[in-house]
Write a structure and sequence with these properties.
mainly alpha; two-stranded antiparallel ribbon; 16 strands; extended; zinc; metal-binding
Length: about 325
């Protein structure tokens, strides 16, 4: 009976001490477990468990008080393992190599995430919609879609974004920076994705040709979406009312009608809207903004519909393309 109590006490002490040390290096946990078990099993008078734990605690405090500073760049790290990982940035060492594609990584965590590209494993699941992700950071960013949280704010236009990457891309709109250039024609782009799409233009054999109207597309996704205009196919069906749509985004917007969700709220009158574009249009009732300018007579309009009706007054100015150009120009200059 006494031995059982001692073992239970031992397990309790081990669990507490391991939890205290869980953020430290693995070897420290191994040392803790070894010392406790060794003190219990060794012959002769047993040493006190509390004394053994105290020794480990002292060792941990010594580690905590050490200075882990990189001698090359001056950056301070929290522990020896972090400093070791950091030093690979300067040495260029990449000890973790993928056996399938040969790509090498500086950190083990990056290597593990990469392996999931080959295995297709996505262990992180969204509890709201069931969408899966390869790493926890992507899941954390995705959860903001449901909470409507946009913590990354632009200092120039106060627009909010779900992640820092989205904010960084947005900032190039203000700075006009285009860091991604095409090696064939030297055209520059704000995002790597835009450059990738552009590169397909230089490919001689472009398979994305619409046989109905002869229009070319640089991406398969846009081509397939376009084809539905001619075929009338509506593959996206609402599971509640059976209504079908050509595009997935149209179905997503339609489902908000059933849920009653109106995530976009006016900060001036508390009115709510299903779409962000609806909120932007509504804000003009407060700002009195009239972004649509008629180049013929100089009259301005708050709403696109009113602007299009007005264009019919002037002969030869009836197309929507002109309206879009007018709106874009009118945001930057006055008549």
């Amino acid at each position: 009976m006494i031995s059982v109590i001692i073992m239970q006490l031992l397990n309790w002490v081990v669990s507490i001490q391991i939890n205290v040390a869980h953020k430290q290096d693995n070897w420290k946990r191994d040392v803790l477990i070894h010392r406790l078990i060794y003190c219990l099993k060794k012959p002769g008078p047993p040493c006190h468990i509390t004394m053994s734990c105290e020794v480990v605690k002292i060792e941990l405090n010594k580690e905590k008080n050490k200075d882990f500073t990189c001698h090359q760049c001056g950056k301070s790290l929290s522990c020896k393992a972090s400093l070791k990982d950091h030093m690979r940035i300067h040495t260029g060492e990449k000890p973790f190599t993928c056996p399938q594609c040969g790509k090498s990584f500086t950190r083990k965590q990056g290597f593990i995430r990469h392996i999931r590209v080959h295995t297709g494993e996505k262990p992180y699941v969204c509890k709201h919609c069931g969408k899966t992700f390869r790493n926890g950071a992507n899941l954390w960013s995705h959860l903001r879609v449901h909470s409507h949280e946009k913590p990354f704010k632009c200092a120039l236009c106060v627009k909010g974004f779900l992640s820092k990457d989205h904010l960084d891309r947005h900032m190039r709109v203000h700075t006009e920076e285009k860091p991604f250039s095409c090696p064939q024609c030297e055209k520059c782009f704000r995002t790597k994705c835009s450059l990738g799409i552009h590169k397909r233009i230089h490919i001689a054999d472009n398979p994305f040709l619409c046989t109905h109207c002869g229009k070319h597309f640089v991406s398969k996704r846009n081509f397939e979406s376009h084809i539905r205009i001619h075929t009338g196919e509506k593959p996206f069906t609402c599971d509640q009312c059976g209504k079908s749509y050509k595009w997935s985004n149209s179905l997503r917007i339609h489902k908000l009608i059933h849920s009653g969700e109106q995530p976009f709220k006016c900060d001036q009158c508390d009115k709510r809207f299903v779409l962000e574009s609806q909120l932007k249009d509504h804000m003009r009732t407060h700002t009195k903004e009239k972004p649509y300018l008629c180049f013929v007579c100089g009259k301005r309009f708050t709403w696109l519909g009113s602007f299009k009706d007005h264009l019919k007054i002037h002969s030869g100015v009836k197309n929507l393309t002109s309206a879009r150009i007018v709106r874009r120009v009118s945001n930057s200059q006055e008549p």
